[in-house]
Amino acid sequence: MTKQELFMLGRYDIKLNNAILAEDKHLPMYDEMASKYNVEYIAGGATQNSIRVCQDKFGEEMKKNSKLAGVNVHYREDETAPTGTCAVCVVGGERSLIANLSAANCYKSEHLKRPENWALVEKAKYFYIAGFFLTVSPESILLVAEHAAANNKVFMMNLSAPFICEFFKDQQEKALPYMDYVFGNETEARTFSRVHGWETDNVEEIAIKISQWPKASGTHKRITVITQGADPVVVAEDGKVKSFPVILLPKEKLVDTNGAGDAFVGGFLSQLVQEKPIEECVRAGCYASHVIIQRSGCTYPEKPDFS
User: Fold this and answer.
1) Residue 52 dihedral angles phi and psi, to the nearest 5°
2) In the annotation, is 56 catalytic?
3) Which residue among 166, 257, 299, 302 is least enclosed by CB atoms within 10 Å?
């Protein structure tokens, strides 16, 4: 680690392998990074950290890049706050996220209820929402969750970050009964266990307990999927656990872990919507995250070689 990197981490109290919301002390960091470092601008985040932007240059960049990627985006555009940004500091392949939500903190369920937007909800069969959205509009999450339960659709969420499990526990508990799939990593799972007083750090035990949390609908059983970096993926369903090995990567090939968890979910869902077995879903998730961590930022080569 260089002196410059150490200075940057120390100055803004940044811890590696972490995700936090920006405080006032972090706000100068965004301009500093842009002016002093060779930064990359990538539209996205965990499900683009939900669906709202400002009418500014970053908002326009997000819309343009999303449409180029074939994503049908219906953003809520806010005129009172700038588009949210997330600083990603990568040192030695490990990343730390500092999110300045701005317009991303202004979403209102009225936007979701608009006929043209709710029509998309009614058309969809699968829903995936990042846990980060619990900080903004839990009402919107419950609207979609209740719709999914009432119409036998599949509803999924991600634990997303330890601070979500810890400081948004009540909002998370209200959404959990509707979740058919719960995704997370080992740190988030252990935080979830601690805040619920389960007195276990065993990821397999935690995964089973989450999968057995009472459900709002009996149409779909809940499946919990926990990633553990280089360790096996843990999948809990029907009171049992299966472990799936990941694709190991030599340390010298590790470029950037940012987006690895989101890529895993993306790969997993690509097979789930095709009604493939859980083994294939996990295999695709492992492939996607394996590709992501060998590249800078959450980016992919033009043509995947998954088969």
Assistant:
1) -150, 145
2) no
3) 302
195 contacts: CB under 8 Å, gap ≥ 6: 165, 166, 169
Closest to 139 measured CA to CA, from 101, 169, 112, 177: 112
Q: How many residues does the chain have?
A: 307
Domains annotated for the chain, with CATH where assigned, are: 3-105 (3.30.1110.10), 125-245 (3.40.1190.20)
Span 231-250, pLDDT tens digits: 999 999 999 999 999 999 99
3-state secondary structure at position 55? coil
Active-site residue among 78, 180, 256, 262? 262
Query: Where does residue 249 rank: exposed (0-12), middle (13-18), buried (19+ CB within 10 A)?
Result: middle
Model pTM above 0.85: no
